């Protein structure tokens, strides 16, 4: 998963980032609220870990910006030393999905992230993704449309599966590039655009077929499903 970590204590930041990377996650670390907001305004993440006590803006203010100003429903876990019941209630009421009190324990952190993601994106771990007429068998790396197999390259398949697992979400090009190709500084985001065009054509992701794979200027793409084809 692609995680954003906002923690102003550099030692704590480095420790948490190391734990998360060891668990197989891609981690983007931030020590300042405004730096995080600048990046989060143009990039998508699967989950954000946010400290409450920050020097520029508090964690609750950052969360409010995500939920209200950006209409961003990315799962958020607060990680903070504040442990009063009213603080926990405030954070959850402001839109946080979970709350961890410092000192953070490594395996509890990993387990909480997994639990939040199971609730938020239950389809992400499924071995079968069935969104008629599209059917993905992840074990065989095979996709069919109305029962007919579609020939895709490995990267086209991975991109298609990623889009369908994030159906309805606006995903940044950087997120897509990282999820499908990994962190490779030699790849440009136009690689995403080229593959999106091929996937759209091969899978017939068009409004007349009940789906739309549309770009958002200077950001990324969203795959949407209509309730009725041709709507």
Notes on the protein architecture:
This protein is of the alpha/beta class and 231 residues long. The chain folds into 2 domains: 2-120, Response regulator (Rossmann fold); 124-225, Orthogonal Bundle (Arc Repressor Mutant, subunit A), CATH 1.10.10. It is 39% helix and 23% strand. It has helices at residues 10-22, 33-40, 59-69, 85-93, 106-120, 154-165, 173-181, 190-203, and strands at 2-6, 26-30, 47-50, 76-80, 98-101, 128-131, 134-137, 142-145, 148-149, 170-172, 211-216, 220-225. The strands form 3 sheets. A 5-stranded parallel beta sheet has the order 2-1-3-4-5, sandwiched between helices. The protein has a 4-stranded antiparallel beta sheet with strand order 6-7-8-9, with helices on one face. α6 (154-165) crosses α7 (173-181) and α6 (154-165) crosses α8. The longest helix is centred in the middle third of the chain and has 15 residues, at 106-120. The protein starts with a strand and ends in a 6-residue tail after the last strand. The model has no long low-confidence stretch (mean pLDDT 91).
Report the portion of residues in β strands. 15-25%
How many runs of DSSP E, i.e. beta strands?
Answer: 12
- What is the CA-based Rg, rounded? 19 Å
CATH topology descriptor of the largest domain: Rossmann fold
CATH architecture of the largest domain: 3-Layer(aba) Sandwich
